[in-house]
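I am going through a labmate's work and have reached the protein record below. What it holds is a sequence and that sequence's fold in C-alpha cell form. Please read both lines and tell me whether the C-alpha cells look consistent with the sequence. Do not assume that whoever made the record got everything right. Thanks in advance; the entry in question is below.
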Amino acid sequence: MKVTVSHQDEMKFEAKTSKSSFVIDCPIISPIEYFLSGIITCSATDVVLLPKNQGKTVTDLVVEGDAVRAEGHPAKFVALHLTYNFNSDGDDVTAARWVMASLETYCSTINTIRDTTAITYSITHNGKLIRENEKMISGGGSNIDLGEIDACPS
C-alpha cells in the first residue's frame, strides 16, 4: 500500500492512493480524527459485509468511537470505546459474532492499535442492548485477568 500526501495551501493536503484521492483540510478535521474515522469505518464495513456473505442484511448501522488520548506528546490512543447500533435479520448471538469477528480478526486498523490501546465495545441490535462495555478478549491493550488456568504438567 502506498499513499502520497502533498501540501496544497495553508493547512490543506491532498492524499493520493492507487485508487483515489481526497483532501485533508486541517484543522477543520485533524489527521487524528481521520485516523479514528478510518478505524471506525474499517469495522463498520466488516459489520455490513460479514452478514452479507451469510445471506443476512444489516440496516441502520451507526458506529460511534470515543477515544482517550495520552497526556503530552505523542498523544497516542490509550483507550477506545466503540458503540455499535444496528438492525439485522440475524439473531443477537450472530450479530455479536459479526462485531467480534471484525474486532478480533478482520479489521486491520483496530488490530494495528490493539497492543497499545484498551478497546471496549457495546452493541445495540434491533433496539436491544446485547453487549455493554465488553473488553476485547485478546491484545496487549487490555488487562483481562483470566485467573488460574489448569494446564498439563510439562
In short: The chain has a mean pLDDT of 89. Residues 30-135 form a domain with the GMP Synthetase; Chain A, domain 3 fold (CATH 3.30.300.20).
